[in-house]
Design a protein that fits this description.
Largest sheet: 6 strands, mixed
Strand content: 15-25%
Helix content: 25-40%
Strand order of the largest sheet: 16-15-14-17-23-18
Distance between the termini: 22 Å
Number of helices: 14
Number of strands: 23
Length: about 450
């Protein structure tokens, strides 16, 4: 069981792992308004407990049915039900909760926890637990909890009560044999591969956790690791997820192609601007299915834009040109483009900066066919370590070198990668763009960083 009110990209990746291992799943709360507070900032999540009460009710008398509950926006399964059951039985408990290295949300309770061995995790994490249905139902209905109260504190108080802990046979997965909470433990785990199978190995406990949880403020690093898990990518078989859920435009008539809003941005004097325009013209996509938007801040390039529009403007479905005289700043022009895309009922928003020379004439088609909510081609400079993506973020949300950055940049690892930052050329599905209107503005961040932060928070 899991609680999810929106089918975010994180939820879809979770579901990929569920389907990969043919696990039965009951999603609770999909389409409902989230009433558990902003748990990214404050304690909360009692709404999950209240939803679970109703979901478990039909199974309240089943003392033979094992139920796994986990979060879904930041969780990946790495093995099947048979393996989960085997480990659970070895742990000799009726209910097992995930364990972590932080006492949250009430640190004053830390001294009340039972002691554990060296390298084991001491504190309860409510992002993953499992047990027999009858026990779980008794636990979640043992007391009232408000929707905005903290679910982890609710379960913690139960675990710390020796009577209730004994009554329901509750233990913590202190050695991370089923559940691996990654916050504070990134240096304790390694990715491992065996043929077409990828898995996580805990070097401190020697365990191979099955349910991996990117809890806390480590979502970008969890996403990097999740690029490989659930057999998504392995050294011997490469990218096994790249061909999943794709579409093909091969036999689609020109008039039936999706409508694309192509937003071009010239924000600084750019060499080879004529070649840039020509490569966009050369994209193998019917131009009558493209609404063209150009924002040019540079007087020097006014003639270049006018010549391009004179020669090719009539080939496109619509053209909207914003010249330097309009004096729109970088944030305003890009947010303006997202609004126009919506007005044109676009199915895709394709933003290209003048730095991005698309030497592959099938770039747009290839990106659409991948059928992802947000996607970018990898762009690089010959002989340089520069690219249009970051593989990791530091604690302040800026660039950090990812462990696999050079492998990706040099194409030693080819695949489809979830990264925290992209720039210069981005394709966004229209239904996703609805969540990102005005998303280029995010605090005092540059437009590209602002958009990526908005995407990380909303998609």
């Amino acid at each position: 069981m899991t609680v999810a009110t929106d089918a975010t990209d994180g939820f879809l990746w979770f579901m990929r792992s569920i389907n990969k291992y043919k696990l039965d799943i009951q999603v609770i709360g999909m389409g409902e308004e989230w009433r558990g507070g902003d748990i990214t900032i404050y304690p909360g999540g009692g709404f999950k407990v209240n939803l679970l009460k109703e979901a478990l009710k039909p199974y309240k008398d089943r003392d033979d049915l094992l139920v796994v509950f986990s979060d879904s926006y930041d969780v990946v399964f790495t093995n099947n039900a048979k393996e989960i059951k085997q480990v659970f039985k070895k742990l000799d408990a009726k209910v097992i909760f995930s364990a972590e290295g932080f006492c949250w949300p009430d640190t004053s309770l830390a001294t009340k926890y039972p002691e554990v061995k060296t390298h084991e995790k001491k504190y309860l994490n409510s992002g993953g637990f499992m047990g027999y249905a009858s026990q779980l139902y008794e636990i979640v209905t043992s007391s009232e909890i408000k929707d905005q109260d903290d679910d982890q504190l609710f379960y913690t108080k139960i675990y710390l009560d020796p009577v209730m802990r004994e009554k329901w046979g509750i233990k913590l997965d202190s050695r991370n044999e089923i559940f691996q909470s990654l916050n504070g433990a990134l240096d304790e785990v390694n990715l491992k591969f065996k043929g077409s199978h990828s898995f996580m190995y805990n070097i401190k406990t020697g365990s191979v956790p099955i349910i991996v949880h990117g809890n806390g403020p480590i979502k970008p690093e969890f996403n990097r690791i999740a690029n490989y898990l659930a057999d998504a990518w392995t050294p011997t078989h490469g990218c096994q997820s790249c061909d999943e859920n794709t579409i093909s435009l091969k036999d689609v008539k020109d008039e039936d192609h999706p409508r694309v809003f192509m937003a071009l941005f010239i924000e600084h004097a750019t060499p080879f601007i004529t070649e840039w325009f020509q490569r966009l013209v050369d994209q193998n996509y019917p131009k009558k299915k493209i609404d063209l938007y150009i924002h040019n801040r540079i007087d020097y390039h006014q003639k270049d834009v006018e010549e391009f529009l004179k020669k090719h403007g009539d080939e496109y479905k619509t053209v909207d040109y914003v010249p330097p005289q309009k004096a729109l700043n970088m944030w305003h022009c890009r947010n303006h483009a997202t609004h126009l895309c919506g007005k044109h009922d676009c199915q895709y928003y394709f933003a290209v900066d003048s730095d991005a020379q698309l030497t592959n004439s099938d770039t747009l088609v290839s990106l659409i066919e991948q059928n992802r909510s947000v996607i970018a081609p990898m762009l690089s400079r010959s002989g340089k370590l520069w690219s249009n993506f970051w593989g990791a973020l530091n604690k302040d949300g800026f660039y950090a070198r990812a462990e696999d950055y050079l492998d990706l940049l040099n194409e030693n690892k080819r695949g489809l990668w979830n990264v925290p930052f992209i720039r210069d050329c981005i394709l966004i599905q229209g239904r996703t763009l609805e969540l990102l209107i005005d998303g280029y503005t995010n605090g005092d961040l540059d437009p590209d960083m602002g958009l990526c932060k908005t995407i990380r928070n909303k998609v």
